[in-house]
Write a structure and sequence with these properties.
mainly alpha; MetI-like fold; globular; 11 helices
């Protein structure tokens, strides 16, 4: 085994410091008494209190949560179906095109996706609002769900499904009782991933939003243009907490599933 040299350790320290020190400073200065974000004036939680009194931020947060919930739920359903199609139907006619349509939004710049969806809504004479933002988020987030589910299905044992069908179980009951519980961790991970992507999106939402559909990232961006304040740090800290909670939840679910799998195989 190769030793983990000092250069590798130094590279890890520099890399993680570059990634996480700005986030730590942001969280720290969200509890700053002073309005100046670069001058520490003492510990205080007043900016979180003022945040609760800011109706504009609360409205934007509510819009973001609604869009993220509905878009991630619908994207999970569609992405799961797409992942199952890619793994269960073999080399069907049009598989290459279908696969390309799944992977394209993942590598395409967000500006292109936002502009194309905007042009589509204009051509269809659809008024921009929460509905259009939700549709746009479904478009790109379902691709991530499909990849996660497809990865889980690649190690799926088809003999379980065949045994259930041979015993007289209908295809629907086979899916709900056998297939879905096995791939459920991947489905949940896909939902959390798409929810996080929707919370974080700024570019696509900027193209597809309309009056009354300003999301929280758009609101934060408009506030930052006038200067960074501890109130913005407080909002960002809450977002970091939400994303961290989602990552921890997904990790715990995955670990529990790994612990249960050997027991099931042993049984």
């Amino acid at each position: 085994m190769k030793k983990f040299g000092s250069f590798n350790i130094f590279s890890l320290i520099v890399g993680f410091s570059f990634l996480y020190i700005p986030i730590i400073l942001l969280i720290l200065f969200s509890f700053n008494e002073s309005r100046l974000v670069t001058v520490w004036g003492g510990f205080s939680t007043k900016w979180y209190g003022e945040l609760l009194q800011n109706q504009g931020i609360k409205d934007a947060a509510w819009v973001t949560i609604k869009v993220a919930f509905f878009s991630s739920t619908i994207a999970t359903i569609l992405g799961t179906i797409a992942g199952l199609v890619m793994t269960r139907f073999g080399n069907f006619k049009g598989r290459t095109l279908f696969s390309g349509m799944i992977y394209a939004p993942m590598v395409m710049p967000e500006v292109i996706i936002g502009l194309s969806t905007l042009l589509m809504f204009v051509a269809l004479a659809i008024d921009r609002g929460i509905f259009t933002v939700t549709l746009a988020h479904i478009t790109f987030s379902m691709c991530y769900v499909a990849v996660v589910v497809q990865s889980r299905m690649s190690s799926y044992d088809d003999s379980l499904t065949e045994a259930a069908l041979d015993l007289g179980c209908t295809p629907f009951r086979t899916f709900t009782l056998i297939t879905l519980p096995i791939i459920l961790p991947a489905v949940i991970s896909g939902w959390l991933l798409s929810f996080t992507l929707s919370l974080d999106d700024l570019v696509i939402a900027s193209f597809t939003s309309g009056p009354g559909s300003t999301t929280l990232p758009m609101k934060i961006y408009s506030m930052v243009r006038l200067g960074v304040t501890p109130e913005i740090n407080a909002v960002s800290t809450i977002l970091v907490g939400v994303v961290t909670l989602g990552v921890i939840t997904a990790s715990l679910i995955g670990r529990r599933q790994k612990q249960q799998t050997p027991k099931a195989q042993h049984t």
